[in-house]
Specification:
Helices cover 28% and strands 34% of the residues. By secondary structure, the protein is an alpha+beta fold.
Length: 65
């Protein structure tokens, strides 16, 4: 993954389990060695993924009316 600001490849800093968060279960942190930006990438939980799938399914049903 490249830095949004300068385009340099980001360095992975690690993955961490989230606590007390039902929507996301893992957060990965990355940093840019060039411009020193920091990026957190939040991975959705299975519960949130299922909610998105259900929402998309309902939206598709509504669009076909």
């Amino acid at each position: 993954m490249n830095c949004w600001h300068c385009g340099t490849e980001l360095i992975w800093g690690g993955d961490h389990d989230t606590e007390d968060n039902e929507e996301y279960d893992i957060v990965s942190n990355l940093s840019c060695p060039n411009c020193h930006c920091h990026v957190d990438v939040w991975h959705p939980s299975e519960k949130l993924i299922e909610e998105y799938k259900e929402y998309d399914k309902n939206q598709s049903s509504l669009e076909s009316l």
